[in-house]
Amino acid sequence: MVFGELEFHLGFPPVRRIITQRLLKPVKDKCIIGYNSNAAVRYLKLYNKATAPTVGTDVPWLTIALPPSTAFSLPINGVQFPRGIGFGLVTGAADNDNTAPGAGEILGLNIIFS
Prior knowledge:
This protein is mainly β. It has one domain: Jelly Rolls (Sandwich). Helix content is 0%, strand content 53%. The chain contains no helices and nine strands. The two termini are 21 Å apart.
């Protein structure tokens, strides 16, 4: 799906989903909001890339723990991504983790940037 300069990719099969996104210009993040519906922590990995990241292979620029069973609003003013921004959602904190959360676990994810 393309929305302006944002491009979202959803990997299949449905049993194992990894969501990645990319914006092909330098950006500065301001805030991340959403809801983690799972009873366990999930992780948002942000990548400084001009292409879509390969989750589990590329090294994240920033890894953020999303608290369990709650809405989150995380200010991250000033974090810069000079090449562009990409993200992935996974169940583990390790840089090489590529285990995708289940469908519907992370809801309303918005990354607000300038």
